[in-house]
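User: Could you check the structure of this?
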Amino acid sequence: MNTRCMSVVLTLVLSSPVTWAQSDATREPYRVQPGDILTVSVWKEDGLTIDVFVRPDGGLSFPLAGDVGASGKTIEDLRKEITDRLRKYIPQPVVTVAVKQIGGNHVYVLGKVNKPGDFQFITPIDVMQALSLAGGTTPYAAINDIVILRRENGKESSMTFRYADMARGRELSQNIVLRSGDTVVVP
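Assistant: Sure, the predicted structure tokens are below.
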């Protein structure tokens, strides 16, 4: 690309009304995943401050609250559910739930990339970022035939991703934010 073309592209990008950073209002809240470790505490109840592990089935166990489904819930949803369950035993419980360690958010990148594997993430990542984590594509990759596999509610779906379009600034909507468990396949 010559200098004049690059200048035009940069001018268009920099003068675009698109906001590149997500604002706090549009940022999706963190959703608990199996493998996460949470700290749950109840104010003024010394025996009710513990670290809990989110099991592979998505549940966790907390004294007096019992078995609680945690996977896919926000921290606030989980806090409210534990609070409601504790009301039988503790008047007006003040519950705090915090993420101590994230262990469940993984995406997988395989195929013709330089470093295939599973990649843990804390903040949301999109397809281009996942490809970057995998060291980029090899020279023999079919970059316009990349597929994203997703399993939701027991059903598997696939989405196509055309790298060349993204590199040219076209079809940007295909650069989706990946969810935990998604697999990016580079043939």
